[in-house]
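Practice problem 4.
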């Protein structure tokens, strides 16, 4: 793709985008299809809770099969997401999930700079995150250096500009490092209920292209509401997401649904659980074992 086209698709609209937008995806595999009705009822409850939350920007609850569900939520900030999670709004539902699920995977993401279209009128793209800034000691005076030398934990959590934040904390840096280099892409097609099958076929073809990439780890495709089709792809290498954004198949979908096609690269922040045995994180530091590459582990496991 020419640089000017890439720059144009990165530019947010008049409504802008707050740089702290934060996304969460979950993927749930049930122990069996007999739990489908109960899971659907629980999903409706979660939808109602999210609908009354003023800090969620966009959300979707998606059915990918009789035993597979996933969700997307985009929040105004990490703080807003954490406030909702700590409110206990769906503690009882999560307790039921623990009994029903064979596997559960949660990934927290930052929307990346590459985007096509808008998700229901809102642009999600954000500037490239600047996680790795110059060391604190090169940006601050000698007096502050000496003071922080006596407080190593505080110093480790201090950014180059002297501010304290979760993003600059050792835990956040370690979590990002564990999934560093991986990438994701979400594609959403919004159409009429009658055209749902055509939209599904278009995203199936795009999913096949994503799976053919040697860095492919997992893909999942499903319906939200009638006429709302979603695709999530995860790769071991972030550049694969950008390759799919440049796909002629995606360009054809944009041409077919000019006002109903949205795609955004997502940058992983941290991970919880596993996707049918696959974990993006490279392995816990306390275990001195060799961990196979992400791409090789994915090749050894069936896709979802």
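Answer key:
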């Amino acid at each position: 793709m020419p640089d000017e086209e890439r720059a144009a698709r990165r530019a947010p609209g008049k409504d802008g985008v707050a740089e702290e937008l934060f996304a969460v995806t979950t993927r749930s595999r049930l122990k069996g299809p007999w739990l489908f009705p109960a899971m659907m009822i629980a999903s409706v409850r979660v939808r109602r809770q999210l609908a009354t939350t003023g800090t969620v920007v966009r959300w979707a609850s998606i059915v990918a099969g009789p035993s597979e569900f996933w969700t997307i939520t985009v929040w105004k900030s990490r703080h807003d997401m954490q406030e909702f999670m700590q409110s206990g709004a769906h503690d009882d539902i999560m307790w039921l999930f623990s009994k029903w699920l064979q596997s559960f995977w949660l990934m927290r993401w930052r929307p990346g700079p590459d985007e096509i279209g808008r998700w229901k009128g809102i642009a999600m793209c954000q500037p490239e995150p600047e996680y790795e800034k110059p060391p604190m000691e090169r940006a601050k005076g000698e007096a502050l250096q000496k003071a922080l030398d006596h407080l190593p934990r505080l110093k480790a959590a201090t950014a180059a500009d002297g501010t304290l934040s979760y993003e600059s904390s050792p835990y956040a840096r370690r979590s990002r490092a564990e999934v560093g280099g991986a990438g994701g892409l979400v594609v959403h097609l919004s159409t009429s209920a009658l055209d749902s099958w055509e939209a599904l076929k278009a995203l199936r073809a795009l999913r096949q292209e994503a799976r053919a990439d040697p860095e492919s780890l997992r893909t999942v495709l499903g319906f939200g509401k009638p006429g709302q089709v979603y695709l999530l792809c995860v790769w071991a290498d972030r550049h694969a997401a950008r390759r799919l954004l440049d796909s002629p198949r995606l360009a054809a979908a944009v041409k077919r649904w000019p006002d109903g096609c949205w795609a955004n690269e997502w940058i992983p922040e941290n991970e919880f659980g596993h996707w049918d045995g696959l974990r993006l994180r490279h392995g816990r530091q306390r275990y001195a074992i060799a961990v196979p590459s992400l791409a090789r582990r994915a090749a050894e496991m069936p896709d979802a």
